[in-house]
Here is the input.
Amino acid sequence: MNEEAADWIEQVVEQSERVGVDSGQQHAWEAPIEKSWAALATNEGEVLKVPAKELQRTERTNALKAKQVLGDISEADPNSVLERGVIRYLVIVFDLSSCMDVKDYKPSRKHAALASVQNFVSTFFEQNPLSQIAILGSRDRKALMITDLGSSPDSQRNVLQNVVEDFDSASGEFSLQNSLLLAMKVLERVPDYGSREILFITGSLSSVDPSDVFDTIKSCTTLRIRCSVLSLTAEVYLFRHLTEATKGSHAVTLSEQNLDELLKIHVRAPLMDSEFLKNLKGRKWVQMGFPSLVSETFPSPCCCHSEFTYSGFLCSRCNSKHCEVPTTCRVCNLSLVSSMHLARSYLHIIPGPSFTEFDIESNEPQVCRACNRAYSTYDMLLLECNSCHSQLCFQCEKFAREQLNACPFC
Here is the structure.
């Protein structure tokens, strides 16, 4: 290779790297795998392209089936009575063992899971503002505390990002028992009316435990802790037994997109245990306060960070100042919320909208009532609300089902 060819190759590489950095796009080897063959089908040896309508129907069917992982039977029986927890306490166990450095996920299992967990934390607090999340890590046969129970999505994401960056390379083995013991200590101070959940995101195929892990699993069952596992590799009997004993869910991810979809399932609160509801003696009232936002001329210390600030939320009981809501008062232990958070927390309790496919096929295009665009019933999947009979296209129905949780015209 002569010098001119070498210089030309260096210029092309530098230009491609500069374009990738400036535009924020990934390289081809870093981008997720595009399954272009999924849009193809064979018929008597002839390769045919699957219509977009069939792909949309398959995507919607898979999304409705995924909701059944949490026992959501409202799609099959809209009149059924479902009870869910409004205030949830979730502990996420992040695997930091050597198995997470494998590059079958791009750029690695650890970074792919980190990006998915950060998106999950934001979505979780949007739909569960009264809930709290704690994040744990497991490496070198030990469990470490990354973040304690809190309701601030920004602090949770930033601390997790810093901890993962500090550990340049994951090391050691994963320990299920040590993770369960530390998570149980975090959840032991949770009030009785709160829903206790543990979510494992792991890529390990084994667990190194100091003693009998099955005794620890029985303790989780006694404390009514629901454990779920998302495996990045394959199904493990120990993880499956944990989820079955605690009435959780177990799933194996297929790709980065599938990991995001499986995490979205855990955004909605799971159903309450029927046996626990039978043994429940009466209902307990939860005291909550609605703090007032004040701005002061001179700064004063807050109770949450012990820093001087000019504005904050005053507790309705003891007048102590806090930086953000929802939170728990550090002085009188009163739950401080706003009316917006309280209303948003009840959104997932209301049954979602029910749509059926619009089967009438005609040459005339049908207009979506939401986006006011005309679509052909041969190319686009159109759906009709069972209550108001409004016709929506596939994208608008997906937004109403996943984001609004209600029909916009009912």
Q: What stands out?
A: The first strand starts at residue 40 and ends at 43. The chain is about 35% helix and 20% strand.
